[in-house]
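Fill in residues.
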């Protein structure tokens, strides 16, 4: 299993092959997105976390050039299914699926509150992470 996981990660890290790179779902935590902790996400901060401009504009509802926590939560309420990163469709995120989507092992441990080895939709809902 270990080897398979590494293969997945290696595939996810392949630089700009143009294959699945643009359509693969990305995830990030609020704390990663808001690098300077001022409770808003600027375009620069979003870009650094790998968020495409189009998504930024979508979430920045009032078009003031930054995403407030409120705007982020509105987006999260509407786009919070774990389905895009639940590749084997068992309704929970395994560690392999999480790492593939860009989460670190430490972050996975934090989100997997009951230590089941999986992040459930419920755990995800309260996590402060978003998918785009
Ligand atoms: Ca900020
Ligand atoms: Ca805004
Ligand atoms: Ca799964």
């Amino acid at each position: 299993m270990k080897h398979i996981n590494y293969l997945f990660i290696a595939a996810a890290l392949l630089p700009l092959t143009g294959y699945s790179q643009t359509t693969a779902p990305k995830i990030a935590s609020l704390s990663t997105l808001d690098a300077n902790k001022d409770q808003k996400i600027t375009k620069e901060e979003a870009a650094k976390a790998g968020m495409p401009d189009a998504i930024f504009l979508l979430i920045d509802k009032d078009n003031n050039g930054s995403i407030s926590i409120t705007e982020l939560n509105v987006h999260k309420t509407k786009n919070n299914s774990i389905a895009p990163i639940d590749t084997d469709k068992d309704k929970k995120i395994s560690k392999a699926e999480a790492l593939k989507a860009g989460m670190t092992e430490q972050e996975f441990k934090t989100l997997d509150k009951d230590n089941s080895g999986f992040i459930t939709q419920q755990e995800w809902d309260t996590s402060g992470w978003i998918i785009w």
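The mean pLDDT is 87.
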